[in-house]
From TrEMBL:
Protein name: OMP protein
GO cellular component: axon; cytosol; neuronal cell body; nucleus
Family annotation (Pfam families): Olfactory_mark
Gene designation: Omp
Species in which this protein is naturally found: Syrrhaptes paradoxus
Signal sequence coordinates: none
Length: 159
């Protein structure tokens, strides 16, 4: 029981309002026939904003990603360096963190695969950023037929 108490699993939560707000920014630019700012990241139709709320910020050690995909496809998880802000509509490309986490499931496969080295480094970076944040935003891009409803994901830390 003590081992279970030392684990902290923080789920990815789709921020539908922020995703909608960023899509409106894109539509507004199109309607006004205006170019985005240099380096501005506009949300593509297959990208959604997710957030992770840190209920604990200190002494977290990254253990693993818990990404479950109900069907085949790929999801790319990109963290943002934005500090606490409810508005990412003017998100700049330079605010996107590297490496990214890429998770995929092949047709007929039971397990989700990933590039483990990048996923490990990314998870460790998230643990470092948790010290200065109560919330962290992520852009999730769904490809190869995968949809947001087919994803259940979280980050697991040792607390």
């Amino acid at each position: 029981m003590a081992a279970a108490a030392a684990m902290l699993e923080l789920p990815f939560v789709c921020d539908e309002q922020l995703t909608r707000c960023m899509r409106l920014r894109f539509q507004s630019l199109q309607q006004k026939n205006v170019r985005p700012q240099d380096g501005e990241k506009l949300l593509r139709p297959n990208e959604y904003v997710y957030r992770v709320d840190f209920i604990r910020q200190h002494n977290l050690r990254f253990l693993r990603w818990d990404i479950r995909l109900e069907g085949p496809g790929k999801v790319t998880v990109t963290g943002t360096s934005q500090h606490w802000t409810p508005d990412l509509t003017h998100l700049m490309n330079r605010q996107l963190l590297e490496p990214v986490g890429i998770f995929w499931k092949k047709p007929g496969a039971k397990e989700v695969e990933c590039n483990e080295a990048d996923a490990q480094e990314f998870g460790e970076r998230v643990a470092e950023l948790a010290r200065i944040r109560k919330v962290m935003y992520f852009l999730l891009a769904f490809t190869d037929g995968l949809e947001p409803a087919q994803l259940k994901g979280s980050i697991v830390f040792k607390a």
